[in-house]
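User:
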Amino acid sequence: MTAPARPRWQDRIRALESRAPLGPFPVIGWIVIITASVVLFWLSVPSFVAFYDLPIGSAFVLSTLQCLTLPFAVRLPRSAMLLHLITLIVIGYITRDSFDQFWPVPVPNLLALVVILVILGLRERWIVAILAWWLAFLAMTITVLVNTEDWTSVSEWGEDVLVSVTVTLIAVAVSVMIGQRQRVRAIVESAKRDVELEQAKRSVIEERARIARELHDVVAHSMSIVHIQAESARYRITDEAARTEFVEIARSARAALDEMRQLLGALRPDDESTLYAPQPTIADIPDLVHSTQKIGHHVAYTNEVKPGSTSPIVELTAYRIVQEALSNIVRHAPRATATVALQATSSGISIRVANETAPAPADARPSLNEQGGHGLRGMRERVALLGGDIVQEPLPGGGFLIEATLPTVAREGT
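Assistant: Predicted structure:
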């Protein structure tokens, strides 16, 4: 028995906790770090030579290693921190006779240590940043233990150690708080994207199920007619062979209707208020236009398509396109002027719904008292199902255009 799959959001959180949540390092961050490295290098070399009596070659090498760890800490934070701690111990050892100066962490080292701890606090988990600070404190302690013969000289280095520990601890605390805040924000945004993706997928599935319900309603009506005609044919036809054929046709139609009812039962929503409602047609579009006009829109409506001149599926699709288009206008362009035009063509019908740019946004945006679909995707799927074409695009002067062409009769297989 296999274990249940772990939700994707848990995997996402684990991934974010295992590495930094900030993604690619920003350009401004690189500029700051490189600038800090260069400035610290030019401060460190003369400081080591002038105040700690280091040979210029040693000062150059140690300063180079110390400053290179800063940009490397962005990509290899733990390795860079380890190298920085080794450099810290070495510098503390070779400057052990400079009790009259800031020791065991010279000032240039302290500044570099603060920078690299801030990088860790922002880029790594909080436990890594705290561990790095503790190791830095341990490195200071080891340097003091190895290089101090008389503990009574604590007055010479104790205050310096206290200042170093305090400054680095403040830097770690602040950077960790900022880093954790950004980490939590990244987790929330990632979870939000996952939820939106799941909602979009669910909307598509629900819309396809609704389209299937409506199309099956139309098909079931046609199958009922076939069944009735086949059942009555045996009373109107005297030929025995033909009567037998019609009996078989009636039996097949009845079986198909039973299967259709079972399928519709699975596709129906829990709300049965619309279970037996007739499917809308082109003749119901004026009611949509009137509802839109009542809530503040000026809608010009023209219809050159004769009722019943197309198949019920095509009429239903035309109605849903106009319904969704008007709903989008109400939601996204309140009080905008719109036009709805239906025209008969040589191969089918043309539907055009366009709106102008909305005036000043209203305080409240009313909605149609109709059950719309799930946006432009639903329109495209309905039109593609019939073998038609649809254009959905913004207008150059503002507003939006939806223009669809549907065949008079749905293509085979629908």
